[in-house]
Amino acid sequence: MPKLNNQQNQQYEKIANFLRNEGFRLTEIRLSTIKVIIKLDHPTTMDIIAELQKEYKNINVMSVYNTIDLLLQKHIIFSNTFNGKQICYEIATNKSMHLKCDNCGQVQEIKNHELDKIQILNINEIAKNHSITADHFKIEVHGTCAKCALK
């Protein structure tokens, strides 16, 4: 099982405590699935299963899918489809932004400290104008990276 650094371990504990307080069973596979999603960079379901199979010989794949569904329903993780085919996952934050080159497929995640520069007030105002109270948002920007622009 991948080792978590201090920040990742804090995320893990926060998620585990939330689920425990919500009354969900925290099985070994469920907890390990959460660790894998925290540790890996935008893993797909197959990435998660492959990582878990390193530790567990006979893994119940449905347990992994059910855990992913639970984490999505509780807004603990986001799902993204950058190439239009594979779904990948990341731990949910109150703001998320990715830049994708439509030529080579490179995806860059913009970190929270950079997102702080965005006028979040405007996003909240737009949501409010449409009778929605925003608690998180995702932005996906598509374009051409510098490398592809030179070709």
UniProtKB/TrEMBL annotation:
Q: Which GO terms describe its molecular function?
A: DNA-binding transcription factor activity; transcription cis-regulatory region binding; zinc ion binding
Q: Name the cofactor(s).
A: Zn(2+)
Keywords noted in UniProt: DNA-binding, Metal-binding, Repressor, Transcription, Transcription regulation, Zinc
Please indicate if the UniProt record lists Transcription as a keyword: yes
Pfam short name (any one):
FUR
Please share the entry's free-text remark on the cofactor. Answer: Binds 1 zinc ion per subunit.
Provide a GO biological process annotation: negative regulation of DNA-templated transcription
Q: Which domain of life is it from?
A: Bacteria
Instruction: Cite the binding residues for Zn(2+).
Output: C101, C104, C145, C148
* Keyword flag Transmembrane helix: no
**Which InterPro entries does the protein's record reference?**
FUR (IPR002481), Fur_C (IPR043135), WH-like_DNA-bd_sf (IPR036388), WH_DNA-bd_sf (IPR036390)
Q: Which family does it belong to?
A: Belongs to the Fur family.
Q: What is this protein called?
A: Fur family transcriptional regulator
Q: Top-down, what is the taxonomic lineage of the species of origin? A: Bacteria, Bacillati, Mycoplasmatota, Mollicutes, Entomoplasmatales
Originating gene: fur
